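=== RUN LOG ===
request id: a7f3
mode: sequence -> structure
chains: 1
length: 203
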Amino acid sequence: MKDHARLVRTHIGSLSKKSYWESVQPTPEFVLLFLPGETFYSAALESDPKLIEDGVDLGVIIATPTTLIALLKAVSYGWRQEQMATNAHEVSTLAKDLYDRLRTFTNYFAEIGKGLDRALDSYNRGVGSLEARVLVTARKFKERGAIAGEEIETLEPIDKTSRPLRLDEGGLFPDAVADEPEDFEDEAAPLFSLKAAGGDKES
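=== RESULT ===
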């Protein structure tokens, strides 16, 4: 009995020195010492009651036919939980990256919209000035027969404005988009919606 307990303890020490958990990944930080019968286990414990405690300290768990399946299931469950935690962390990281990229992208889009509004405003003011100060004089040459040819086409202002991004609902991008009018006509409208761009052309 004492020899049996001594052999079990010696084998525990031998398994511990191999440090399988350092050379094989992923793996739990312990190994199993399988005894093929409950009698071998109980006989060893009778002669050396500290086998279990000392084995755990060395990273060696003694298993028998009765406990082996339960231990393997416990290890499998632990691995699944660890994998789920790892996946959750990766999903959280990906979500943060996507959120940051969307915020940056919407900032660019907001700037594009502002640029379009500025361009339309400049165009409309240019059209008004051209019609009121230049073309009206140029057409008088035609009226007085000084020149022949087709009439100069009348330029009309563009009565449209860029559609504001509606991405701040729920506070997703508080700094990405400016405040929007509440009476926007149609959620399914195209990028440009009809709105007055500043009234009639200059006279």
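=== NOTES ===
Residues 177-203 have pLDDT under 50 and may be disordered.
Helices lie at 2-18, 20-23, 38-47, 51-57, 65-143.
=== END ===
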